[in-house]
Amino acid sequence: MTENAFGAQDAPGPDSAFATDYERARERFELGEYQQAAVIFAELVDRSALEPPLHGTTELRLYLARSYYHSAQLARAEEILRAMLVDNRDDHYALLLLGRTLQRQSRHEEAKPHLAMAKLLGGYDIDGPDLPKD
Asked: Which pTM value belongs to this model?
């Protein structure tokens, strides 16, 4: 048994293993070890799909996409971000990251609407297109 932040005892088990792996992945990410972080986050996303989640997987998938982006695995980042936007098309950070991912692949025209929406929804101070005014 381990003590949690509230002083209560946590029983060892799948939840504590998941939390430990999550913290390990975040540490790798914060250290700039994006490829290693991506491997762990991908495993966590897969595991969360098999276990009844207590929370959504949005944060995990966003970390995974960011890890892919920073390690230049741009096609993988794009795939994760597009899937996230199917679930929540107003996720301004996912829109921003998708736009930047497309730009890094020299797909500037395709990036424009995503960056414009990110700018509109998230208030980002980015150089990029505004949405057309009708």
From this structure: 0.81
